[in-house]
Amino acid sequence: MITKIISSAFRAIPRQTERLVIRKASAVELKKCAGNEVTVFPGVYATSIDTELMIDTVVIQPDETFLEIGCGTGVITVLTAKKAKSGVGVDINRHAIENSRENARRFYVTNVDFFQSDVFENVHAVFDVIIF
Question: pTM value?
Answer without folding.
Answer: 0.76
